[in-house]
Amino acid sequence: MASKRVLVILAKGAEEMETVIPVDAMRRAGIKVTIAGLGGKKPVHLEDAKKQGLKVLIAAICAGPTVLLDHEIGFGSKVTTHPLAKDKMMNGNHYSYSESCVEQDGLILTTRGPGTSFDFRLTIVEALSGKEVADQVKAPLVLKD
């Protein structure tokens, strides 16, 4: 079986810990991580991926889940966002909102912000590689349960 691969897309204003903490955990789990930026002026469109019917885990942090709304991805899913992005995310009632630190609904995984990135990272690893691998990644990190 091919190893797991993840593309982390950074937008302007991304918080360092929102990137580094999940990326570190994924790499500890043996997941190949590619980090890409959105620095160009040309808009990025997800229509090609949607047309191909790709079934992939989509994880978004802080205000990142609003990109799902912009591209009409995961309508009907339960999501969470940074509190300041809640109103935008709920515009049109395409999602149900959760106040949970991390929310997973099928292939849509969302979290609220920098402080929730610790829980988020292990949820990503578990979703991609299973609980056993997530527990192995967690063990040396000295985290409270």
UniProtKB/TrEMBL annotation:
Cited InterPro entries: Class_I_gatase-like (IPR029062), DJ-1/PfpI (IPR002818), Prot/Nucl_acid_deglycase (IPR050325)
Keywords, in A-Z order: Acetylation, Autophagy, Cell membrane, Chaperone, Copper, Cytoplasm, Endoplasmic reticulum, Fertilization, Hydrolase, Inflammatory response, Isopeptide bond, Lipoprotein, Membrane, Mitochondrion, Nucleus, Oxidation, Palmitate, Phosphoprotein, Protease, RNA-binding, Stress response, Ubl conjugation, Zymogen
Subunit composition and interactions: Homodimer. Binds EFCAB6/DJBP and PIAS2. Part of a ternary complex containing PARK7, EFCAB6/DJBP and AR. Interacts (via N-terminus) with OTUD7B. Interacts with BBS1, HIPK1, CLCF1 and MTERF. Forms a complex with PINK1 and PRKN. Interacts (via C-terminus) with NCF1; the interaction is enhanced by LPS and modulates NCF1 phosphorylation and membrane translocation. Interacts with NENF.
Any single Gene Ontology cellular-component annotation: membrane raft
GO molecular function: oxidoreductase activity, acting on peroxide as acceptor; peptidase activity; protein deglycase activity; RNA binding
Protein name listed in UniProt: protein deglycase
PANTHER family linked to this entry: PARKINSON DISEASE PROTEIN 7 HOMOLOG, PROTEIN/NUCLEIC ACID DEGLYCASE DJ-1-RELATED
Catalytic activity: N(2)-(1-hydroxy-2-oxoethyl)-GTP + H2O = glycolate + GTP + H(+); N(omega)-(1-hydroxy-2-oxopropyl)-L-arginyl-[protein] + H2O = lactate + L-arginyl-[protein] + H(+); N(6)-(1-hydroxy-2-oxoethyl)-L-lysyl-[protein] + H2O = glycolate + L-lysyl-[protein] + H(+); S-(1-hydroxy-2-oxopropyl)-L-cysteinyl-[protein] + H2O = lactate + L-cysteinyl-[protein] + H(+)
Family: Belongs to the peptidase C56 family.
Biological processes annotated in GO: autophagy; glycolate biosynthetic process; glyoxal metabolic process; inflammatory response; proteolysis; response to oxidative stress; single fertilization
Pfam families on file: DJ-1_PfpI (PF01965)
Cited SUPFAM superfamilies: Class I glutamine amidotransferase-like
EC numbers on record: 3.5.1.124
Topological relation to the membrane, as annotated: Lipid-anchor
Boundaries of every DJ-1/PfpI domain copy: 4-44, 55-126
Domain of life: Eukaryota
Subcellular location: Cell membrane; Cytoplasm; Endoplasmic reticulum; Membrane raft
